[in-house]
Amino acid sequence: MTDTQPRLVQVREHVLKKNDLLARALRARFTAAQVLAVSLVSSPGSGKTALLEKTLTNLPRDCRTAALVGDLATDNDAARLRRSGAPVRQITTGTVCHLEAEMVQRALGDWKLEELDFLFIENVGNLVCPASYDIGEHLRLVLMSVTEGEDKPLKYPTIFNSADAAVITKMDLAAAVEFDSAAAYRNIHLVRPGIPILEVSAKTGQGMEPWLNFLQSKGQKTSTRD
Amino acid sequence: MHELSIALSLVEMAEEQTRKQGGSQVFSVHLKLGLLSGVVKDALLFAFEAASVGTLVEGATLMIEELPVVVFCPNCQQEQTPCELFQFFCPVCATPTPEIRSGKELTLVGLEIA
Q: What is this model's ipTM?
């Protein structure tokens, strides 16, 4: 008979270690291939796909782009983004409410990363769950549209706190909904002090130039390009 | 509701560790959970029970220690706990405190096994 006396064993492991290790390996791969991996998170309907559509079309021709887009079902977003001519793959998560590093790795498949400058990863529209998962991105952008209310960052602080920059979208509607820009900035900086904030309208093109410049300034091949 | 995914990872990790230690049953699982981890304690407790069915962890108690948020104030040059959970400024001098020293933990720290 074996010793069945309970004993305490010490462990010290992050519960999402597997995801984190995979994400770190992905990030190293992106860095080695000199491609900037940019993820977009927001609630459903904040305009991630619209912004991405315009971004893929309006980045200078010498910027080579590709996109992965996550949704529970349909490949509608991928079909929209493909019109830009960039390679796009849809990740359908089934019932899963967020992307994980493994899904990104699988979706990359045979893409030659070294032939890209930017890889965009559009997460599932959700302001809660994606916060916990590193998916190997260099830059995590959180989007909020002017119609959602200036206090969105206070309501969903975890995701705003995990972001590297915030993008306020649908600026063309700002006046109509009496959007209080100062309050939005204050709230974003309360939950994530110091992050850059950009304002865009994918519809009218307002703010697109600073946004594209921002992306290119973060790009890894910019220093080698004329 | 990503707590089920988290619970599945936790159960998998606990089983792996238990086997490695030559154990065949888990009595309790000890977890440190930061208040900024994005994981809801009650939802995790509920998901853990479901996720552990049919594993070495089935029937084990999940013991969760919640950890407060600690930030570093660059002005006071010391660690502080913000007055509001998600408002990152110093409770003493109101300087913004982007540097988070702890509060994001989601760490398996121990197992009671046999």
A: 0.88
